[in-house]
């Protein structure tokens, strides 16, 4: 293990140049981020075993000028994001910030309160509610609104309300159309891969400090408590739909396919306040998050923000979101929304223009230039999404992974490619020596490219690993984007210390519990090891007594398929249960013990379940990223 290094001369010079280019004298964001403070966060969030799940004070080092090891623009953003506590947005609307990656907001009604978004963890959600109640009274929660389908906006719900309260009808849960399908599928289908990469994206293994994690741009980082989920009672499908709960009027605007596949904004006319969900925040957002997701649509994103301005811009006195701090004043609200809209529209249109001239994603990322008004707007800086990786995402959305060059159509996989590159370049020792010269010259992008070949060709080459770790570190120090920084520094950490696994899990029992039958069967089918299952031929009927549904599952040709229609002949085995109990199959329920525990009855050939379980190949939560294995 080698210790973190100091910022190299080339990085120090880069930071000094950036200080001259951006309007650091503009302090409006700091005034806005501190405005309306009712009470600070006084203590960390801990679980019943005393484990610290969230501690905002670990960001107290964010004081004064940026150190050489942090991009000064990211340092500024991180200082803003770390300003936490209970804040008054406007009379009757309060917001807790700095208690998770996201915010939670409270809209006061006649007797109780409507909660908009719930943070990621039940424990941080409960702590936020406690902070609110200590200063605003013990108001009952009358409704919860999920603005969209990402876990940091619904995962804390059981810190605010219980399933029993929802079942009894005393609390409503509002969500946009498609919420459950998107929330559950994103966290289950590719959940193992996404969560592993999210550990890099949020710097889960990094110490917080000037040479470690300083924030993710959109907020600090993810809490590490329990992700919960209660299904919506009311699904919103139409822009302009109005709901009133405890005297709180909410006008909804649908925005599917923007920052999330299922998303909506909320206007509160009696407060002249707009909740922009996550479609307008104080940075450039992701079109393709580095943890991985379906590519988002910047054209639709810009369209919906235009609609937001048309619907509410002339009336709203304040806009607040599920991240960052509010913006006050009708003119400033419109300016903020317009800048955000123009940012996504510009990236979309200019990428398409250059695509149609034959440029490929990496070329467009180097060529594209933002207009000065966007370049110098703090809320358009690439702290979370970046111009570089968003442009590549737009290219991918329209044209896919292949850039049209036949040389890229059938390349060798990473390890075989690396071995050939290193051999062509004279062997690993020669490559490292040449890379050291490039490192000293500050050409870290090139050093990372060539040393990555060394590490994939010879994973145990000590000099190659060490220099690549040092290189990732310098790239991290220079990154304005919070998630680029943590990706680079996490890569350096794993090269030095080995894999750190998947610290944050979103495939929680509550999420699994919301799988529909078809989604559950898909989740199992994804795990089938095709070659191992080639010779298997079996069938299972699943009977759901409470909803009067019957499914036939069939494993043949290495594929698990299913149908809800009546089938000829008897299945090899029959599972009888209820729809609520069925998701237990995803958590080891294919064993006899699992079936009994989940109250799932089995008739027929019991060995069929063992045969199916025997060909399942669950994901690896510690798979290699910066090394071949």
Q: Distance between termini? A: 18 Å
**Sheet with most strands: strand arrangement:** 1-4-5-6-7-8-9-10
What is the mean predicted local confidence, pLDDT? 95
Number of separate strands:
21
Model description:
The protein is α+β, with helices and mostly antiparallel strands and 629 residues long. The protein is built from 22 helices and 21 strands. The strands form 4 sheets. Strands 1-4-5-6-7-8-9-10 form an 8-stranded mixed sheet, covered by helices on one side. A 6-stranded mixed sheet has the order 11-12-13-14-15-16. It has a 5-stranded mixed sheet with strand order 19-18-17-20-21, covered by helices on one side. β17 (538-544) and β18 form a beta hairpin. α1 runs parallel beside α16 (462-478). The chain is globular.
Task: Give the arrangement of secondary structure elements.
Layout: H1 9-21, H2 28-34, E1 37-39, E2 45-46, E3 52-54, H3 72-81, E4 85-90, E5 93-97, E6 104-108, E7 113-116, H4 122-136, E8 141-145, H5 163-167, E9 172-176, H6 179-188, H7 191-201, E10 234-236, E11 242-245, E12 248-254, E13 264-268, E14 273-275, H8 298-313, E15 318-320, E16 327-328, H9 330-355, H10 361-367, H11 372-375, H12 387-399, H13 414-424, H14 428-440, H15 444-457, H16 462-478, H17 482-497, H18 509-512, H19 517-525, H20 530-533, E17 538-544, E18 549-556, E19 559-563, E20 573-577, H21 592-597, E21 601-604, H22 607-614
Parallel strand pairs: 7-8, 8-9, 9-10, 14-15, 17-20
Antiparallel strand pairs: 1-4, 2-3, 4-5, 5-6, 6-7, 11-12, 12-13, 13-14, 15-16, 17-18, 18-19, 20-21
């Amino acid at each position: 293990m080698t210790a973190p290094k100091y910022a190299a001369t080339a990085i120090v010079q880069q930071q000094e140049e950036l200080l001259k280019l951006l309007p650091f004298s503009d302090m409006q964001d700091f005034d806005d981020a501190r405005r309306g403070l009712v009470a600070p966060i006084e203590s960390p969030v801990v679980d019943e075993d005393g484990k610290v799940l969230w501690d905002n004070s670990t960001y107290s080092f964010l004081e004064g000028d940026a150190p050489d090891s942090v991009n000064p623009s990211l340092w500024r953003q991180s200082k803003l994001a770390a300003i936490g506590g209970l804040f008054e947005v406007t009379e009757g609307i309060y917001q807790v910030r700095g208690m998770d990656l996201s915010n939670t907001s409270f809209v006061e009604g006649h007797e109780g309160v409507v909660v908009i978004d719930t943070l990621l963890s039940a424990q941080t959600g409960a702590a936020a509610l406690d902070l609110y109640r200590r200063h605003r009274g013990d108001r009952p929660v009358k409704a919860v609104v999920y603005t969209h389908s990402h876990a940091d906006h619904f995962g804390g719900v059981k810190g605010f309300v219980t399933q029993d309260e929802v079942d009894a009808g005393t609390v409503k849960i509002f969500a946009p159309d498609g919420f459950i399908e998107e929330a559950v599928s994103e966290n289950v289908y590719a959940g193992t891969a996404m969560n592993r990469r999210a550990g890099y994206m949020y710097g889960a293994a990094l110490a917080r400090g000037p040479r470690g994690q300083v924030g993710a741009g959109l907020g600090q980082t993810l809490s590490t408590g329990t992700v919960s989920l209660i299904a919506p009672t009311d699904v919103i499908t139409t822009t302009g739909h109005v709901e009133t709960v405890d005297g709180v009027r909410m006008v909804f605007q649908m925005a599917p396919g923007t920052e999330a596949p299922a998303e909506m904004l909320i206007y509160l006319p009696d407060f002249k306040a707009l909740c922009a969900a996550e479609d307008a925040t104080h940075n450039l957002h992701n079109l393709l998050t580095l943890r991985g997701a379906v590519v988002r649509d910047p054209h639709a994103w810009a369209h919906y923000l235009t609609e937001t301005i048309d619907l509410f811009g002339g009336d709203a006195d304040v806009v607040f979101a599920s991240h960052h701090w509010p913006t006050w004043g009708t003119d400033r609200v419109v300016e903020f929304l317009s800048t955000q809209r123009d940012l996504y529209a510009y990236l979309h249109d200019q990428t398409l223009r250059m695509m149609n001239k034959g440029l490929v994603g990496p070329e467009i990322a180097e060529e594209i230039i933002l207009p000065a008004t966007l370049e110098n707007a703090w809320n358009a800086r690439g702290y979370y999404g970046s111009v570089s990786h968003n442009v590549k995402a737009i290219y991918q959305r329209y044209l896919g992974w292949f850039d049209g060059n036949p040389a890229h159509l059938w390349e060798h996989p990473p390890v075989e490619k690396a071995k050939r590159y290193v051999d062509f370049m004279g062997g690993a020792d020669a490559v490292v020596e040449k890379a050291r010269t490039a490192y000293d010259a500050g050409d870290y992008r090139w050093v990372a490219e060539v040393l990555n070949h060394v590490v994939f060709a010879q994973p145990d080459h000590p000099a190659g690993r060490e220099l690549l770790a040092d290189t990732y570190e310098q790239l991290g120090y220079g990154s304005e984007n919070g998630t680029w920084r943590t990706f680079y520094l996490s890569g350096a950490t794993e090269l030095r210390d080995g894999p750190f696994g998947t610290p944050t899990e979103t495939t929680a029992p509550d999420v699994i519990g919301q799988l529909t039958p078809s989604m559950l069967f898909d989740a199992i089918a994804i795990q089938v090891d095709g070659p191992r299952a080639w010779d298997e031929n079996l069938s299972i009927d699943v009977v759901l007594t409470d909803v009067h549904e019957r499914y036939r599952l069939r494993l043949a040709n290495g594929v698990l398929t299913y149908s809800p229609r009546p089938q000829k002949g008897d299945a090899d085995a029959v599972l009888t249960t209820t729809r609520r109990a069925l998701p237990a199959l995803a958590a080891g329920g294919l064993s006899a013990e699992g079936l009994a525990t989940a109250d799932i009855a089995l008739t027929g050939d019991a060995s069929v379940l063992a045969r199916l379980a025997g060909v399942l190949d669950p994901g690896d939560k510690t798979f290699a990223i910066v090394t071949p294995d």
